[in-house]
Amino acid sequence: MKRPLIGIIGNQGLLNDTYPIHAGGVMNSTAVAEVVGGVPLLIPADPALVSVEELRETFDGFLLTGGRPNVHPEEYGEPPTEAHGAFDRNRDAIVLPLVRACVESGQPFLGVCRGFQEVNVAMGGTLYPEIRELPGRMNHRMPPDGTIDEKFALRHAVTFTESGVFHRLMGAPKVMTNTLHGQGIKTPGSRIVIDGHADDGTPEAIYVADAPGFTLAVQWHPEYNAANDPVSRPLFEAFGDAARAWADGKRPQTVRKAG
Q1: Structural domain total, the chain
Q2: 51 CB neighbour count, 10 Å cutoff
Q3: Is residue 32 part of a domain?
Q4: pLDDT tens-digit profile of 175-217?
Q5: Range of the domain at 82
Q6: Which of 6, 7, 46, 147 has the fewest Cβ atoms surrounding its Cβ within 10 A?
Q7: pLDDT at position 101, please?
Q8: Which residues, at least 6 apart from 133, have a Cβ–Cβ distance to it below 8 Å?
Q9: Are 76 and 121 in contact (CB under 8 A)?
């Protein structure tokens, strides 16, 4: 059986501090190939190089990856501050309209970390620039020191809506996840359903209500150890099922808000 083509949103950076590159994490490609069952292809997220229409015609699904630059706050009507960190306006210009187009058409995407935030902003939501500064919130950022395994270790619980989309997918009302982010949802966008929270109230799992396709997004990084982690694997497998259905010309049923 032909594997679906999965577009992995790339991030811009510098090699040796001088050579511009588009890059993607090996974990993302591995999760797509081994768990999704797709062909992983890196997308240079730059509107000067690709268009949303070309991407939608080429790929069967999209992995909206994490990344160090944040969504520019002008995209949700707020001025930038030092707390907002670095930006990638080229990625904003590609991914935000791509999300909206996929929501309407049913083309599947899976949002991860920054990708989770992009889904919310694309649907009209806003973000906190630094959630660890909010009263009662924990520090969700990646530990500054340690091995890769230590940085991606499971650090907090996420509780899902009873009988909701994620609860049914995971087969459990509460799971443990890693956490490597600074920003988080302030106000949910139109049709955004927050289906899972950390114990401190931070939104961690969302989908778009009444969308005809797969629109799940998570604030953690499920690509780490995706083949073996009991939370990551069903998430990527479900995304793979949706991508194969799209490749075969089938369309999943509308995802509706639980309850």
Answers
A1: 1
A2: 13
A3: yes
A4: 999 999 989 999 999 999 999 999 999 999 999 999 999 999 9
A5: 5-247
A6: 147
A7: 97
A8: 83
A9: yes
Nearest-5° angle of CA 131, CA 132, CA 135? 90
Spatial separation of the C-alpha atoms in residues 32 and 26, rounded to whole Å: 10
On the question of pLDDT at 258 being above 60, the answer is no
Phi, psi of 51 (to 5 degrees): -115, 160
Which two three-digit tokens encode residue 109? 């995407």
256 pLDDT tier (thresholds 50, 70, 90): very low
| CATH code where residue 43 lies | 3.40.50.880
Please give the pLDDT value at position 145.
Answer: 84
Contact 222, 180 (CB under 8 A): no
User: How far apart, in whole angstroms, are the C-alpha atoms of residue 18 and residue 14?
Assistant: 6
